[in-house]
Design goal:
This protein is mostly helical and 109 residues long. Helices cover 81% and strands 0% of the residues. The protein contains 5 helices and no strands. Helix 2 runs antiparallel to helix 3 (60-68) and helix 4 runs antiparallel to helix 5 (88-108). 32% of the residues are buried.
Amino acid sequence: MIGPLFFLEVMILFSFIVSSLFMFVPKNNESIHKVFFALSVMLAVFITIIDATSLPSNMGQKNIMAWCALVPAGIGVIITCAKGKPNTVSKLFVMTTSVLSALGYFVFL
């Protein structure tokens, strides 16, 4: 369980925690919120890819569950595109994706 993939997952999770903190910091500059939202979406997708591809091929149901963790991030991106800027609900959806993927990696592996 402890190997290069584990360390990569931990580093990505740490980066996600830092970007999530800066995503919720109240600033008057809206472009900073958009940049950190985009970074959080990319990190959530990357965590999900690592989670889904690290499973063996004979665990089909767990693999499908791992890919389904991307659904909240998709909903968050749709909400952001509809509103024109990231709001708290869309940020929480993206954070949910990362939490689900991290739990999937650490629990199922």
